[in-house]
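User: Please fill in residues for this 436-position structure.
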């Protein structure tokens, strides 16, 4: 296999993507911008129900896009690359203004399972959306130091370094953002001013805190990149890049190509815009003639249809090797990781493994395999939900990272390019055979 050279431009583009996308609503806005620039249209605007379609659909924090040939029939397969737009964060409460002892603070609710300590003593911004009384949605992004969750000094917590830090999410995670008396409506008034609207018109909001330190390369040779939200914007970006590249050339078997980035994976995907919701089913029924039909096992629509569930993977942590399966360690810069689990936390099987390895070979990309230890529980992804809902053979992949669920994570600078190249080869390559 001729190996591709690492593409530093892919890591730089990922850094740009992350900087533009501090909330799921900003992720979908950036994806929509890139799709429109590539010639895709909002769903239903071209009136071409029976013709070739390059369309996309945005619903809140989810975006789906498809490239469907005009020759699509019941035998046409579909190939999907799917990711999620959300990350574990601190989210502003509905009535956020609070504070004590002369400090003005913001009340926050924990979303997902962030590493609490990683949010301490960081310069934080706030982003999301304001919804006006007439239903108008206004995006907001204060991408400058605004808030901070201060840590307790060791003088007042003797032994913290020996006994470990314990944080109560209700008591210890509310950031400060000023001094003086607490005023109800203060945060919304400030954000409305930032957005150029009247605070009296704001009826609701979805707002998350985010680290304002931009992504940065580090390491002796710049082989590492630190950034917020690598889980899972590394996959949302890599999947979109692969989809756009693959849609520029006709797949060998005329397959329908689909990109899906769902919200709410970090809290179980059970929402209107999550992978367990109705959006994927709606789009598949719209663009895939064979979806929902009792097709025979040997049908090309069955044998050629696959879904790549793309989500960040665990790199082997050099300070905690005891939590990793010793024969299946993943390293940063070593290429995308194929994730397997006998208990179907990841739905990858042997057929999917073979198809993925062929795609990596075609792209000249190194690949790795992750399996968890029997005595350490692994996470899960949107993969099982998609596989069980659609019946499409699904495999789980992702780039290896350290500090998963931290406010700032770490990956190899080579891996974003490797991921996009391998996913593009998978989407546009020859039809993988079905094992009988």
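Assistant: Residues filled in for all 436 positions:
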């Amino acid at each position: 296999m001729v190996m591709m050279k690492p593409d530093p431009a892919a890591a730089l583009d990922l850094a740009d993507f992350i900087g533009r996308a501090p909330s799921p609503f900003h992720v979908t806005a950036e994806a929509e911008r890139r799709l429109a620039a590539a010639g895709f249209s909002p769903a239903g605007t071209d009136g071409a129900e029976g013709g070739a379609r390059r369309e996309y659909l945005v619903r809140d924090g989810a975006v789906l896009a498809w490239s469907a040939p005009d020759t699509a029939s019941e035998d046409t397969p579909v190939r999907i690359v799917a990711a999620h737009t959300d990350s574990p964060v601190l989210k502003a409460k509905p009535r956020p203004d609070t504070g004590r002892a002369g400090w003005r603070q913001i009340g926050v609710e924990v979303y997902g399972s962030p590493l609490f300590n990683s949010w301490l003593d960081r310069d934080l911004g706030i982003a999301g959306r304001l919804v006006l009384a007439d239903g108008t949605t206004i995006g907001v992004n204060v991408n400058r130091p605004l808030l901070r969750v201060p840590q307790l000094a060791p003088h007042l917590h003797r032994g913290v370094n020996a006994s470990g830090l314990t944080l109560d999410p209700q008591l210890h995670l509310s950031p400060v953002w000023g001094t003086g008396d607490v005023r109800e409506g203060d945060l919304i008034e400030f954000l409305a001013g930032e957005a150029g609207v009247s605070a009296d018109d704001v009826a609701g909001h979805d707002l998350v805190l985010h680290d304002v330190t931009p992504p940065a390369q580090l390491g002796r040779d710049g082989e590492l990149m630190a950034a917020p939200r690598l889980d899972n914007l590394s996959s949302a970006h890599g999947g979109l890049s692969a989809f756009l590249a693959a849609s520029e050339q006709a797949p060998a078997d005329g397959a329908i190509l689909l990109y899906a980035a769902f919200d709410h994976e970090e809290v179980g995907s059970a929402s209107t815009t999550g992978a367990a919701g109705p959006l994927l089913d709606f789009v598949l029924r719209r663009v895939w003639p064979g979806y929902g039909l009792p097709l025979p096992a040997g049908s090309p629509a069955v044998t050629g249809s696959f879904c790549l569930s793309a989500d960040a993977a665990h790199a082997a942590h050099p300070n905690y090797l005891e939590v990793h399966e010793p024969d299946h360690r993943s390293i940063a810069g070593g290429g995308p990781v194929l994730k397997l689990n006998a208990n179907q936390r990841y739905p990858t099987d042997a057929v999917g493994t073979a198809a993925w390895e062929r795609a990596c070979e075609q792209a000249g990309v190194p690949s790795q395999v992750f399996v968890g230890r029997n005595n350490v529980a692994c996470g899960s992804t949107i993969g099982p939900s998609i596989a069980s809902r659609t019946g499409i053979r699904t495999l789980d992949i992702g780039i290896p990272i350290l500090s998963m669920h931290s406010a700032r994570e770490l990956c190899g600078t080579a891996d974003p390019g490797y991921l996009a190249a391998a996913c593009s080869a998978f989407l546009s390559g020859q039809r993988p055979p079905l094992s009988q």
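For context: Residues 235 and 330 are 17 Å apart (CA to CA).
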